[in-house]
Amino acid sequence: MVDQLSLESESTIAVGIGFGETVFAAEVNALSAIQHSKERTDPRDCDCPGG
User: Is the pTM of this model over 0.90?
Assistant: First the structure.
């Protein structure tokens, strides 16, 4: 779905999901996930579960 959106919008799409004990912790984890996704250049480099 993200790849399709990226192709249709002719833009790079970064997605991150964060979980945490608090809203703040979840936000910090989500920002970290987004940063990690921006640093990846090859989608096959994902070291996340299920990726």
Answer: no
CA distance linking residue 34 with residue 21, whole number of Å: 19
Query: What is the tally of helices (H) and strands (E) in the chain?
Result: 2, 0
Q: Is residue 10 part of a domain?
A: yes
pLDDT interval class at 41 (50, 70, 90): low
pLDDT band at 19 (very low <50, low <70, confident <90, very high): very high
- The Cα 33–Cα 47 span in angstroms is 11
Cα–Cα dist 41/18, whole Å: 21
Alpha helices by DSSP H, the chain: 2-9, 23-39
25 within a domain of the structure (yes/no): yes
